[in-house]
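ok posting inputs for the manganese (III) ion job
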Amino acid sequence: MAFELPELPYAYEALQPFMSKETLEFHHDKHHKAYVDNGNKLAVEAGMENLSLEEVVKQSFGKHAGLFNNAAQHYNHVHFWKWMKQGGGGNKLPAALQKAIDSDLGGYDKFKADFIAAGTTQFGSGWAWLSVKNGKLEISKTPNGENPLVHGATPILGVDVWEHSYYIDYRNARPKYLEAFVDSLINWDYVLERYENA
Ligand code: MN3
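and the output
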């Protein structure tokens, strides 16, 4: 089925001052749209236009680099918009998530430090992730559009560390962007929904 650019689930101004209207206009309207348009063309060329998005991501990995890059980035961004909300972030987590982070990742403070470190140490473009693998939470990082789906895990939270995600608002200060994402933007309700369905 054809990929479609979803509407943002909030107004372009909603995430200010942590993520500006200008960043969301470029990031959603230009970057994400390009992944959708290119992905649709390349899916037809690869004969994968009738597969679900997840199947395109998994089946193109390592085989069709152009299609994989665009389809995976479409998948990543569909969820990235929903992983943020106005008034989000911080350490008031839904109980089930708090429990899993305590038992699998050593508590919220360690989760926060390790998640930010994953994003900070991803050299060049990529993503930092919180995923469920074999029933347990894990933190990881991936280059470019790659995501945990192709490593047998289900991503329940991800943060985009491509420069287009933070350069307008934070210039080169990627750690400050990651700190703001964790403290003020994460939509823990959507993380919980992904966790319960993982
Ligand atoms: Mn992006």
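notes: The two ends are 23 Å apart (CA to CA). The chain has a mean pLDDT of 98.
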